[in-house]
Amino acid sequence: MFYSIRWRIGLPFILLILAVMLVLGVYISSFAKSSYLADLESHLHDEAALISDTVKPQLLNSPNIQSVDALAKHWSEIVNARVTIIGADGTVLGESLEDRTKMDNHSTRPEILQARRNGWGSATRFSDTVRYDMLYVAVAAKQADQLLGFVRLALPLQSVQQNIRHIQWTIGIATLATGLLAAILAIWIANRTTRPLRELIQAADQMAAGKLDKRLIPNTHDEIGNLTHSFNEMAAQLSAEIKALNAERGRIIAVLNTMNDGVIIVDAENSIQLVNPAALAMFNITETEALGHSLILVIRQFQLDELLTLCHKTNQTQTTILEIPARQQYLQATATPLGEALPGNTLLLFQNLTRLRRLETIRQDFISNISHELRTPLASLKALTETLQEGALEDPPAAKRFLGRMETEVDAITQMVEELLELSRIESGRVPLSLAPTPAHEMIAQAVERLITQAERAQLAIEIQCPDDLPKVLADSKRLVQVIVNLLHNAIKFTPPGGQITLSARQQNNLVLLSVQDTGVGIPADDLARIFERFFKSDRARSGGGTGLGLAIARHLVEAHGGTIWAESIEGRGSTFYFTVPVAR
Ligand code: ADP
I want to staple 262 with a disulfide (CB 3.0 to 4.6 A). Which of 267, 278, 303, 412 is the partner? Predict the structure, then answer.
């Protein structure tokens, strides 16, 4: 408490005032005492001189001691003080208070010695006779130049001391009162002076707790007013800077959080300082597992250790490919030293190459599939032309047969190219659907009509099951007929003569479920998951026609409508293909 400015200003004031009052009190009381004594002394001197005049005659004619003593007693009553009349030789001739005969020779008393020399003298001392402090004043009684004796007056100093004590008491009270007043004043002034400081401290505390909009109103024009002003400016600048920093931080966090690439920052000891959600997802870790922990322990990939070591050594960006077999992932990791921005820290960027790799594989598969598909018809075309050149032309019926087979091969290639083009158009979303509420049974009827002759030729019965109250579906009817045709065509192809094909439609919540069921050869369980892939053909189908694109096209068209397509099959007993289309509202 006494360390506060309030007390540092107040306390010296109080001490100063107390010291001054103390010195003043001591001085005044000693001054009063001495002036009082001097006053008393001159008073006693005058009275003694007066008395000495009256006793001179008695002293002159060989003194009548009896009458001198009576005189002393008489004067004592008048002047109200002890009166002693002493002979020139120091014998006590009259005494008002005591028995004079018991008193010793007084010639050596200091006041008597002084009076003998100077005509009068005074002294203050403890009287053995009356046993307290007395003021003595003696005056020499002289006739012409002859010393007759001394008249001495004495007063007890008790009353003097009482008066002095009274003065000291008054001064003491005054000292205390002024001291108290000064203390109150000093504290009040100190309080007033330090109040803005205390407010500043409060405001600074609040700012430290995050309330940056706190401002103070400067109500003085002194240094503290200036300080308040500077404080306000500092607070405004600080809050503006913090706001800007927060905005900047928000932007960076937004970028980091929405990025697809993983970002990790590690310090010089390779402990993780920052990690973004993409990185957490890539390595399947949580933020608490990562932050502050060693990168190598969190992500157990030895290549990362090598990458960081190399990056530290060369102080240059380094790149490596991480393969995470458990998750079938390929990641490109790039380590960049952050240099002056964050000394000792390294930025690690992880880019997921899995999709790129997969696309690469798909592209390669695609090319090899196309080459494979084209090789057979092209080889037979080559063989047919060679046979024609080598003389078959001379045999018109054979040549005609060959030409017919050549046309079939060219048709197969043309169909494949058309289907590929169609698929690529659908896949890239360049086929706009003209959706309209369409009755499902109409589309089924159209598809059946297109393939009915083929089915009859293959000796297959076709049945349609479609309730009358079925709601219309939202579909591009031409495209969905294509889907049903593809499925029906497969059913005809893969069902031996005498079989049965059933097309049906029924409602399921806000979808309509369509199915094409056959009693054909069925699909092996292992192949079931892959039949919707491009170019997929089961071994049994490889020998026959078909490009392996029909189901891929069907899947894309159904998905473009917002539906799903799947198949169920028991080998040797038949297959059922299902797909859904949303009900029109
Ligand atoms: P394709 O033009 O060769 O028929 P699809 O994509 O239409 O190509 O069919 C892919 C493969 O799925 C076929 O080769 C066949 O093995 C199998 N498949 C499709 N439909 C049926 C079905 N109804 N019964 C048996 N297998 C089928």
Answer: 278
3-state DSSP assignment of residue 91: coil
Q: What's the DSSP call for residue 472?
A: P
Distance 543 CA to ligand 1 centre (A): 12
How confident is the model over 356-393, as pLDDT tens digits?
888 888 788 888 888 888 888 899 899 999 988 988 88
For ligand 1, what atom is nearest to the CA of residue 552? 6
Compute, in angstroms, the gap from residue 139 CA to the centroid of ligand 1: 160
Query: How, if at all, do strands 511-518 and 500-508 pair?
Result: antiparallel
Q: Give 421 Cα–ligand 1 centroid separation in angstroms.
A: 19
Ligand 1 pocket check: which of 501, 517, 531 to mutate, most ligand atoms within 8 Å of Cβ?
531
Distance CA 185, CA 32 (A): 31
User: Among 521, 535, 537, which residue has the most ligand 1 atoms within 8 Å of its CB, making it the best to mutate?
Assistant: 537
- Number of Cβ within 10 Å of residue 564's Cβ equals 14
Residues 6+ apart with CB under 8 A from 314: none
Query: Do the beta carbons of residue 501 and residue 492 sit within 8 Å?
Result: yes
DSSP symbol at 122: E
8 A C-beta contact, residue 257 and residue 328? no
Backbone φ, ψ for residue 460 (5° rounding): -115, 140
Contact 471, 509 (CB under 8 A): no
